[in-house]
Amino acid sequence: MRLSWVRALPRGLWGSPGVPELCRSLCQRPARAPTERGDTAGTPKPRGPQRRHPTEGDTARGDTPRGDGDTARGDTPRGDGDTARGAASAWHRHFQEIRDKERGPEPRDHRRGHLGGDTSWGGTSRGDTFRDDTFKGDTSSSPPPHHRSHQHHDDSHQQDPRDGDPSEPGSPRRGPAAFEAALRAMERWPPGRGGRLALVEAALAAMEALGVERSVAAYNALLRLLPRGPWVPRGPVQRLLFPFPRQQECGLQLLEQMERYGVIPDAETRFLLLGVFGPRSRPLRKVQRMMFWLPRFRHLDPHPLPPQPTRPGLAAARLGLHRMAGDPGATVTVIQPPVPDTGDDEGSVQPYIVSSQSPEQRELLAQHDPARAVFVEGPFPLWLRGTLLKYFVLRGDPLPPHLRDPPPDPERSFYFPLELQLELERGPWDDEEFDVDEVEEGPVFALCVPGAGDRRTLARWISALQEQNPILGRAPVVFRLNEGGADPREGPQTPRLGTGTPPGAGLEPPEEGERGGEPRKNNGE
Amino acid sequence: MALAVMLLNSASFHAGCCRHKVLLSLRAPLLGDSKLCSSYRRPGAEPAKKLSWQNADFSFKKGIDHLKTQLSLLKKETQDYLKGPSGHQISQHLLEQTKVLWQFRSQEDLNKWVISSDVEIGGKSKVYIKLGRNNQAALLYGTLNTEAPRDGETKYSGYCSMRSRPAVGSFNRKKYYDWSNFNTLYLRVRGDGRPWMVNIYTDPYFSHQKDDLYSYFMFTRGGPYWEEIKIPFSKFFLSSRGRVQDNQHPIWLDKVRTLGFTIGDKIDGPFQLEIDFLGLLNDRAHREEFAYEAYDKNTPV
Hints:
The structure holds two protein chains of two kinds. Chain A is of the alpha+beta class. Chain A contains 20 helices and six strands.
């Protein structure tokens, strides 16, 4: 909203004298790039010709005659695109093609009439988004390569990245490079207010599929496409009246996505936002907050994982076992390497078995009574930031009270006490024990992460453990496997909702063949 | 025009954050305040069959029974009051360094907690709670599903939570926990490696602050061994409707209402958490008063 009459007011009312000039001088407004067919895209004044309106309404058919020059190029993607995801906007399709074909994007025009204003936040008027008076290249001269139907763009924003094929796994560089190339190409297109917003939205949605959602550089590159200067409110009066709401929301959406993926904005992001939105705007406040809180939350994890995501497989199993074993002296051994070694079907012929046992656990197992059984329990879940591992535990049951060692007889030694319980003038102010019955669980003897959780693999594990722990040859080994994992039956326990008093935490009916515990516990075998 | 713009703005700015609506619908049943429920019924919500005032049953016998239970509760409260602060001897109250708040050994202990998930806003996560092996711990488990409900305004989804029921005294009066003697929260848990969020709700005096929540993170290691996690209260930061606030202050521990655990780490898949007990500890080695700066952060850019 340009309130040019504000300039008639006393200067103090529209902000400090330097602010608009400062913003403009900081970042020059980029020269308007001419469109491909060399039309006068730079003139802001003339409104779009009337024929735009009918073509805005019925989109696909209306432009086909003009798109003749490009039908060859336009048809093939349209064929793919429409059949697979006919409702996505042209921007999304553009990113789609980058992902699919990994070539540089062809410069394409698109209609912004619908895309710019209506975002997925329904019910907003378009009073603030300017009609494309600046952008008329599309109608007459510039090539509209594929004119797709724009009717369903509202709900297309979320669905596109998931519809698209994922970027090739073997090309970690191509995703970011393709994204950069796309942005560079789009930079050349004539600016117009609605178009940039749609571009940003489509790019944000496509980032995850291209694999650049955690890189600050990608977000900065995206921010460089926004115009610097026009969206800066002039003075406190305009700032008070929520200037450029759609545009600020676009900036906020970009920052929300950064926050969601835990990307910390850097000084360049802040500088770009300052140029685009001006000081004391919502995106800038949000960046201030992000730069305050995200670094504080980044390193809170007392057991941090390596920053690169771990792919499921042998390496993840090793990492998981190192993490779970309480002892740094625990040895992690690969009992059986996977066949084939690497790739997506790692371990499809022969699954890997990785086992871990620390010296303490070995001692405990050596002290275990061979007449009592040892149990192989599992599978239990272990998450390594997005990768789920299933591990198995070799453990024994706790001894029943009548089999535990009695306290030492004080008459065994007359010269010094075998057990001391000194009060040492300690009162409740020194007592740091919790008054609660301790959970009794048997000792853990070994841990294992196998590629497959069937009994043969686990038996192979046990026989490998037997080399270091001969007692396993004599003690009976019982397999307590719950094939369904810890999942419940899909049952009646769905949490009920906010009408009236909610029920207490529902008790799941005990499952048979579950962690096997209750009926077989403390049998004194 | 300005008003219309402001209304539009507020409508669209809130669209991105679904949590405030969630908190509204979450807390309404918890505190029995039906004013907070709006008339819009979210996709996952059950239809309101009966209004809360229609549930009132005016039978004489039930009234007498109710009165009897409340009077006995009142009697117990008076006896506790005469015994000392919060029902203990004053020496114990002043000198104790540890306190067990909730332990999970029986079904009644489970009934003191309420579980919820994003089913309330139309999501698809599932959460269940049961007693673990040998009735020795509580097992909170389920599946997280980050698919957002298709209602046009929710962008993110996927959370499950377990919150304690607020304490209620005789005649349904609010009772608060007084944790001012302690400075650390002690949790004995066994997780599966997923990070959780611990939230404390202190009933505020002003209703404007009713969405205020003090939160911090709980990182589990996973594995077969129990973990003892100590979270000092100085680390809890203030958030409201899911947004961390600019003006931070340390939590006031004298009027705590509920404690809750939430998981929402944006990863689809099953989760589980076993909790042995929750307690308080006065860690004398911890001298920090507050971990975050309390000065004004909205400085001119």
